């Protein structure tokens, strides 16, 4: 990697980390904690609400410039789920309705151009899109029985088993670990 590419990589990495720290502070009042580098979680008895940020433009090699674009994904994880990944089963800023220009989810890590707007809009996406979606599925009954539940049939079975007192300690521990949640 050339010195110029390494410099851009370091600038982008520092800009993304700064954005994540500020995002963390701004969404903590909603009950979310940063549990992994790009994951924020809010735990419930049988599920975890999560927000995942993804820096766009990631590929093999160094970033080409200091422009940072961020995608936002929402999801609900059943703690008793056996899958080894966090399904991005909620709204995502990749959806067409996000392309209206209402949310500006990019900034220049070198100049700071549109940084504040990006952070403000990341928080607005959580408040405007994520929170209403999480509230729509804020009960076990809704997750199990709503026709538009984000859970797959197997995930519904895992949730039902947990509610019936038949959760697997190993699956719950694996889910917590997957999302970076320390058991208390």
Features:
single chain, 184 residues, alpha+beta, five-stranded antiparallel sheet, 5 helices, 18% strand
Q: How would you describe what is shown here?
A:
Helix content is 40%, strand content 18%. The protein is α+β, with helices and mostly antiparallel strands. It has one domain (3-178). The protein has a five-stranded antiparallel sheet with strand order 1-2-3-4-5. Helix 1 (3-27) crosses helix 2 (115-136). The relative contact order is 0.17. The model has no long low-confidence stretch (mean pLDDT 93).
Q: What radius of gyration results from the CA coordinates? A: 18 Å
Tally of separate domains: 1
List unreliable stretches of 5+ residues: none
Distance linking N and C termini: 43 Å
Helix content bin: 40-55%
- What strand line-up does the widest sheet have? 1-2-3-4-5
The count of β-strands is: 5
Order of helices and strands: HEEEEEHHHH
Structural class: alpha+beta
Determine the mean pLDDT.
93
Q: What is the secondary structure topology, with strand pairs?
A:
Layout: H1 3-27, E1 33-36, E2 39-43, E3 47-55, E4 67-78, E5 106-108, H2 115-136, H3 140-145, H4 153-163, H5 169-178
Antiparallel strand pairs: 1-2, 2-3, 3-4, 4-5
Helix pairs in contact: 1-2
Summarize it.
This protein has 184 residues and is of the alpha+beta class.
